[in-house]
């Protein structure tokens, strides 16, 4: 639903007030602790769609309802349970919460739980699935092998591992990589965890996966489950979460992509520490994994990745054509983490929508289409079709699929699908673990994984905020839809705010943007299909811009500092450009640059959409002109902000 002019103006004014609120009287606003322990409640957005705007109201209350604090081997441990019925600190769930928790909680809520997990690393390098305070007995009903892993005086800690899954170690690496990306804290990577550097414990964990779970054909193995799931088809009782001699074993898409991502990330961590040998080792492992995934699992005839290939040993309980099943989780991560190339991405996106229509699922969130037939799994939780991991709707995975679409040139489809999810959540009354194909809520209420995934789809996807230790890049993907956003990251005390509105009558877009991020960065604005910039003005003066293409999307791009600025973009419709910008797979032309696979739009190379003006003259968007720094302005009317304090490194 589009807003009225009055509503749009009110929203635009509101974000200006938000931006100014943090810098009145020439002083930085201090974080405000809440009674629930959250440092900041500033993060918010507005799009004018009631259901989408209401979605954010679920985020912080769900996080606060699942906060966990206890004394562990490493000291005070702070983290989040996965949901109302999952009080433990789960590794893979916690990794997916960071896109939400980074906007509300200080850094210890993002790191202490991981340090505690690593402190209980086993001798062979593998990690537990979950840890918690207290005796193991209460958990053994659902986790029969849960056991005590630490005792000191009255302090008791318990843990267990769902050995059907092979994503725990990769999730630990992914968590550390996310935190380091926006803190830049090298000393944290070197921190001693029970006598061993944190980064070396990550190294040992991922080495265990390659040593114990890599097939002869270069793919990571796990139990036969529903894609990313942890329930095998073998038993009727809770033994289904453990891999044993009766368990069918497969080469898996999801676990292979997760390990690829972790190897790539670990290589970057070692590179940032100046340790070239280990960096090179992990980069090589990542290259080999990516090649194996594409060689063994890509299905050219179907246009998506096969989610598993059975290995010799115990057989599945029934023969099924699993190659025909579209698995959202593994395919989403293949796009998000750069395994798939642009052509593959476009086909996966199309396959996801086609399967949703074919099977009548209310949103894009169906995780396995079609599901395994009734009776394939013996355990009651997913014995039936369309239940739990066997064909249910999971926003935990849909959110990451949407983020992958936003980043890879399918913003219009992602935005439309996000609206569908928001309306289903509003209708069902909150964020649940999973939903039936028709949208009925099931499983744990207050499910934190959904908060993390949907926060990523919104703040990093739709609003395009890429905030890192070294600086900021913004990619405004709203297109013709008005919107505003403000985020606060307590770990950096960084704030970002912008408001966008587009007037179709004058073909003019206006953006106000402001942040206390240091230095300069790239600002991108998604162009409506078929449009190209006729003129761009920053603070009333002509500014040079370029146009970049990513998938089916085109962006106006420029470099700017992050003081308060007003950008005005006047567009024209080019009959030649229109087919290019509406092409499902995009196009590489001399007027734009396609993004390299695996790189975020914030790192895409740019190509000028300008004539050669010669000498020191540049194209302003409408004419050649002499170089002239545009006027700088700030809502605060104060000297340039001091660089925000960051962690060591």
Can you give a write-up of this model?
With 649 residues, the protein is an alpha+beta fold. The protein has 16 helices and 31 strands. The strands form 10 sheets. A 7-stranded antiparallel beta sheet has the order 1-21-22-23-29-25-26. A 5-stranded mixed beta sheet has the order 19-20-24-28-27. A 4-stranded antiparallel beta sheet has the order 4-5-7-6. The radius of gyration is 25 Å and the shape is globular. The model is unreliable at 1-38 and 575-649 (pLDDT under 50).
Q: Can you give me a brief rundown of this structure?
A:
The chain is of the alpha+beta class.
Q: Beta-strand percentage?
A: 15-25%
Mean pLDDT across all amino acids: 86
Instruction: Outline the biggest β-sheet.
Output: 7 strands, antiparallel
- How many strand elements? 31
Helix content range: 25-40%
Low-confidence stretches: 1-38, 575-649
Draw up the topology in text:
Blueprint: H1 5-21, E1 44-46, H2 50-55, H3 59-65, E2 67-72, E3 75-80, E4 89-90, H4 91-101, H5 108-119, E5 130-133, E6 147-152, E7 155-160, H6 168-183, H7 186-190, E8 192-193, E9 196-197, H8 198-212, E10 221-223, E11 249-252, H9 253-272, H10 276-297, E12 298-299, E13 304-305, E14 308-310, E15 326-327, H11 328-336, H12 342-359, E16 368-369, H13 395-407, H14 411-428, E17 432-435, E18 441-445, H15 448-462, E19 465-468, E20 471-476, E21 483-489, E22 494-503, E23 508-515, E24 520-526, E25 531-538, E26 541-542, E27 546-550, E28 553-561, E29 565-573, H16 577-582, E30 617-619, E31 624-626
Parallel strand pairs: 20-24
Antiparallel strand pairs: 1-21, 2-3, 4-5, 5-7, 6-7, 8-9, 10-11, 11-14, 12-13, 15-16, 17-18, 19-20, 21-22, 22-23, 23-29, 24-28, 25-26, 25-29, 27-28, 30-31
């Amino acid at each position: 639903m589009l807003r009225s002019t009055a509503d749009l103006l009110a929203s635009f004014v509101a974000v200006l007030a938000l931006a100014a609120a943090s810098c009145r009287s020439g002083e930085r606003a201090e974080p405000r602790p809440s009674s629930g322990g959250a440092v900041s409640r500033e993060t918010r957005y507005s799009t004018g769609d009631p259901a989408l705007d209401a979605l954010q109201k679920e985020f912080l209350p769900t996080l606060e309802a699942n906060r966990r604090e206890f004394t562990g081997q490493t000291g005070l441990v702070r983290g989040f349970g996965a949901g109302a019925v999952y009080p433990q600190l789960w590794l893979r769930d916690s990794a997916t919460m960071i896109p939400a928790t980074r906007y509300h909680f200080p850094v210890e809520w993002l790191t202490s739980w991981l340090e505690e997990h690593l402190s209980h690393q086993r001798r062979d390098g593998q990690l537990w699935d979950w840890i918690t305070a207290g005796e193991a007995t209460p958990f053994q009903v659902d986790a029969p092998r849960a056991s005590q892993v630490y005792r000191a005086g009255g302090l008791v800690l318990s843990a267990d591992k769902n050995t059907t899954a092979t994503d725990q170690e990769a999730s630990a690496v992914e968590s550390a990589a996310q935190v380091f990306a926006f803190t830049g804290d090298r000393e944290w990577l070197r921190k001693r965890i029970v006598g061993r550097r944190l980064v070396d414990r990550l190294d040992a964990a991922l080495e265990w996966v390659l040593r114990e779970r890599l097939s002869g054909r270069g793919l990571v193995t796990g139990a036969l489950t529903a894609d990313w799931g942890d329930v095998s088809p073998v038993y009727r009782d809770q033994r289904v979460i453990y891999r044993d001699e009766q368990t069918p074993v497969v080469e898996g898409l999801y676990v292979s992509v997760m390990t690829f991502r972790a190897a790539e990330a670990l290589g970057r961590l070692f590179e940032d520490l100046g340790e070239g040998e280990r960096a090179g080792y992990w980069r090589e492992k990542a290259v080999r994994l990516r090649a194996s995934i594409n060689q063994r699992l890509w299905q050219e005839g179907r246009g998506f990745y096969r989610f598993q290939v059975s290995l010799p040993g115990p057989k599945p309980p029934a023969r099924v054509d699993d190659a025909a099943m579209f698995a959202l989780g593994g395919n989403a991560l293949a796009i998000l983490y750069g395994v798939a190339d642009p052509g593959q991405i476009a086909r996966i996106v199309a396959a996801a929508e086609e399967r949703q229509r074919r099977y009548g699922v209310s949103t894009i969130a169906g995780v396995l289409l079609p599901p395994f037939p009734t009776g394939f799994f013996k355990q009651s939780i997913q014995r039936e079709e369309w239940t739990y991991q066997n064909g249910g709707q999971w926003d935990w995975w849909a959110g990451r699929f949407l983020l992958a679409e936003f980043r890879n040139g399918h913003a219009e489809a992602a935005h439309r699908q996000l609206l569908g999810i928001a309306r289903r959540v509003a209708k069902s009354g909150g964020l649940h673990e999973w939903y039936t194909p028709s949208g009925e809520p099931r499983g744990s209420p207050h499910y934190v994984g959904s908060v993390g995934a949907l926060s990523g789809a919104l703040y990093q996807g739709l609003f395009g905020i890429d905030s890192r230790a070294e600086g900021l890049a913004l990619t405004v993907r709203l297109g013709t839809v008005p919107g505003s956003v403000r985020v606060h990251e307590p770990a950096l005390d960084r704030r970002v705010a912008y408001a966008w509105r587009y007037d179709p009558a004058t073909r003019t877009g206006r953006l106000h943007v402001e942040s206390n991020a240091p230095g300069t960065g790239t600002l991108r604005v998604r162009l409506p299909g078929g449009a190209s910039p006729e003129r761009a003005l920053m603070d009333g003066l002509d500014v040079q811009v370029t146009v970049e293409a990513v998938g089916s999307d085109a962006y106006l791009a420029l470099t700017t500092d992050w003081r308060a600025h007003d950008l005005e973009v006047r567009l024209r419709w080019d009959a030649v450009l229109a087919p290019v910008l509406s092409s499902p797979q995009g196009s590489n032309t001399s007027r734009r640059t396609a993004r390299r696979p695996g790189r975020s739009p914030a790192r895409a190379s740019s190509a000028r959409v300008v004539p050669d003006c010669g000498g020191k003259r540049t194209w302003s968007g409408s004419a050649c002109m002499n170089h002239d720094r545009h006027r700088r302005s700030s809502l605060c009317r104060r000297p340039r902000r001091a660089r925000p304090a960051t962690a060591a490194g």
